[in-house]
Amino acid sequence: MTTGAILLIGASRGLGLALAEAFLRLGWSVVATARSAVSPLHAMAADHPALEIETLDITDGEQIMALADRLSDRRFDCLFVNAGVADAPGSIADTPLDDFARLMTTNAWAPLQVLEALGDRVAPNGVIGVMSSGQGSIANNRGGGVDAYRASKAALNMLMRCYAARRADDSHALLLLAPGWIRTDLGGPDAPYTIEDSIPKLVEVILAQRGRPGLRYLDRDGQSVPW
Ligand SMILES: NC(=O)c1ccc[n+]([C@@H]2O[C@H](COP(=O)([O-])OP(=O)(O)OC[C@H]3O[C@@H](n4cnc5c(N)ncnc54)[C@H](OP(=O)(O)O)[C@@H]3O)[C@@H](O)[C@H]2O)c1
Predict the structure, then answer these.
(1) What CATH number is associated with residue 155?
(2) pLDDT tens by residue, 82-113
């Protein structure tokens, strides 16, 4: 397996932290972001010299531009935006506007701001990816529930299609990853999958995209998810 460099956005804990650790174990150099100065990611840094930590709240456009400036001379083989929030359960009738706006901002607006600011730092055969969700599939939504989260991930998927459509000749692989329901703070204790059994699959799907231009919406097994 070839190594490389990844810029991982939103890696303080959960899936992002585990992705950072997995890429480090594969011998990659990792620039990972957290929005606070103390996190499990920071605790991991002492054992991993190939890990650099940057500070970023992805809902702050000025912070995104400042990060892009700091990394202006850097090149990556993969840019992956993992950060996301889901803490607005129930139907849209139960969702205060502030919560709806926060989910839309964090899960849809912010990842695309990051891609617009930093996508050109990715090697031509590299991967530009975002953590989506199966809940973002409009075609697969037969039960409703977590309406605002579903809407925010569907909006993310649409914005990624806009990003791809504006770059029809782009050589990057563009990835929307639906990781499955995983036991994290966000996924909760009832999720069927653990971080440990999920991360190798997610890494494999990300790595398999290298050198494959075009946009794909894939699950943890690399299978297409209906839009
Ligand atoms: N777990 C699942 O079952 C599941 C399923 C489908 C999709 N996903 C997606 O996978 C991604 C990671 O989820 P997870 O389960 O690992 O959740 P998690 O444990 O709650 O972690 C969420 C991560 O996002 C970061 N984040 C949230 N808002 C941010 C902001 N404004 N700026 C920067 N970072 C921010 C958090 O940072 P802080 O520590 O600073 O809060 C944390 O690192 C999310 O996009 C989620 O929607 C998860």
Answers:
(1) 3.40.50.720
(2) 999 999 999 999 999 999 999 999 999 999 99
